[in-house]
Every structure is written in structure tokens, then in C-alpha cells.
Specification:
43% of the residues lie in helices and 20% in strands. It is α+β, with helices and mostly antiparallel strands. The protein is globular.
Length: 283
């Protein structure tokens, strides 16, 4: 990975951790991430927060300069806190767009698409640096998703018992199926034209950091995909996506909500930026 100024490196790492993509080993991914989402995040901070010590978030003045009473006041600690707080604000404002863009970058890096290797005279990725905002990057991801042909992965017989595990009857004829293997994830992508397959989530599933589930209709067709993130003994819903990464129909999301207690799933508990614990719905 190319060397970055300390401030930019701290911002890139803080946003990657907030988006939970900091452990990706996809070749070229972090160069794409730093030239794309991280760069527009830093530009947003410069134009929106500027040199302010605090920033108004829902009527609460949040300290965004990295300073705090007591504790570690080293330059490195202040820099880390500054960008972690700003990344938290940015993610709260743009989480759907960020997840959509990151899924696109993970797939593009995993499939070694030609544009991911192109560089301008400054060593940056042209497709990334032409974007001014996260909305520009999300629009690029939309165009890629619309253009991408529906992949076909069923050249060999598919034995569902080897790749899937039926988990629960959700009611109304719908079932919940856990996807266990990269091939199962690829089939889900083929059906719903989103980014859970093609290698983008293989590492998360194989490492046990995430579990991926498919919501199937009475005919057995996938209607939505659920990502569950594992955090110690807790399992929380990260996202629920339908066709082309859109939100699934309301009744499908309601099936997830109605089964969360039985499945041991929860909304992600986090500390809001002003210190109060809260359950945050990311989907």
C-alpha cells in the first residue's frame, strides 16, 4: 500500500474501522478505499467541520478535535480520537452509501477489474479521484451494478445440503437459510444481483466474523440477504439487502424483525457520540 501523510493515514484507518472493512485482504482494496471513500470523507471534514473544536450532531455539541479531559494526550492519541469521532459522524450520515460503495470496491478488487490497476500521474486511481462526494461514488457503484451481467455459477451440480443450512420457518411460507460456503454466496449474488458473492464476503464468513442468511419465499427463491456480525457472544444485524442492493419489501424486513429474539439477533448496541448507549438500526 502506498505511503500516506500521517493525517490521511489516520483518517483512512478510522473510516475503515467504522465501516468494518479494515481487515480486508483483497488485493488493491485499500488503495481504492483511500483514493475513494477515505479521500471524500477527509474533504467533507475540511469543508463541513473545518477547524471547529465541536460539531453539532442532533443538538449535541460533539468534540471533534481529539482533545479530552485526562487520559492519553499524546499526538498519536489525539490524532486517533479526532478521526475516530469524525468517522463516526460521517458513517452515521452516510452508512448506506458507504456500505454500497465498499461492497462494489471489494468485488472489483477481488475480480481484479482492469480499472483498479489504472493510475494517474500522481499514482491515484482515476475512477476514484474524479468523485467529489460519497454520493458520486455510490452513483458509480449503481452504474457498475446495472451494467454487470448476472453471473452464472451453476456449471456443476449444486447440492444445497453441502452449502446451505435451513434455520427457521419465518411464517407466511418464508424460510431462513444460512449460506455456508463461497459457492452459496455466489448463487445468492446470481439471484439478487448484489455483492455478497464474487469473493467480497468470503473472508468474513470463513473467519467467523459474519454469518450470511438468505430469506426464501414459498417457492424457494431468494428475496433478501441478511448479514449478521459476530461480536463476542452477541450477534447483530448489519444489513438486509434485496435485489440490486435495494431495501427488500417491508413485509420481508418485518419477517426479520419478528424473528430476531428467537434467533438471538439484536440491533447493534453502540455508544452515541455524546456517550449514551443506544441500539442503532443499520438496515
Amino acid at each position: 500500500m502506498k505511503r500516506m501523510p500521517q493525517e490521511m493515514a489516520a483518517a483512512c484507518l478510522a473510516l475503515a474501522r467504522e465501516c468494518e472493512c479494515d481487515r480486508s485482504n483483497a488485493f488493491n482494496f485499500f488503495e481504492l478505499f483511500s483514493d475513494g471513500p477515505a479521500r471524500v470523507f477527509v474533504n467533507w471534514c475540511r469543508t463541513t467541520i473545518g477547524g471547529q473544536e465541536t460539531y453539532d450532531v442532533g443538538g449535541h455539541h460533539v468534540r471533534v478535535d481529539g482533545w479530552q479531559w485526562g487520559g492519553d494526550q499524546s499526538t498519536e492519541a489525539v490524532l486517533r480520537r479526532r478521526w475516530e469521532t469524525r468517522a463516526g459522524i460521517y458513517f452515521a450520515l452516510h452508512r448506506d452509501e458507504l456500505r454500497h460503495v465498499i461492497d462494489w470496491l471489494l468485488v472489483s478488487a477481488a475480480e481484479v477489474e482492469p480499472w483498479t490497476h489504472r493510475r494517474d500521474i500522481n499514482g491515484r486511481v482515476p475512477k476514484m479521484v474524479k468523485a467529489s462526494t460519497i454520493a458520486d461514488l455510490a452513483a458509480e457503484a449503481d452504474r457498475w451494478m446495472q451494467r454487470a451481467p448476472s453471473p452464472v455459477f451453476d456449471l456443476e451440480p449444486y447440492n444445497a445440503e453441502e452449502h446451505e443450512l435451513a434455520i427457521s420457518d419465518l411464517g407466511a411460507g418464508y424460510t431462513l437459510v444460512r449460506l455456508l460456503t463461497p459457492r452459496a454466496l455466489d448463487r445468492e449474488t446470481a439471484a439478487l444481483r448484489h455483492c455478497v458473492g464474487r469473493g467480497s464476503y468470503d473472508q468474513l464468513v470463513e473467519s467467523g466474523r459474519s454469518e450470511i442468511y438468505s430469506i426464501r419465499d414459498p417457492a424457494g427463491a431468494p428475496q433478501a440477504t441478511v448479514e449478521i456480525r459476530i461480536d463476542g457472544d452477541h450477534k447483530y444485524v448489519v444489513q438486509v439487502k434485496g435485489y440490486l442492493n435495494e431495501k427488500p419489501e417491508r413485509h420481508v424486513r418485518d419477517l426479520v424483525l419478528g424473528s430476531m429474539v428467537e434467533l438471538g439477533w439484536s440491533e447493534r448496541m453502540t455508544h452515541t457520540l455524546w456517550g449514551q448507549p443506544a441500539a442503532i438500526r443499520y438496515w
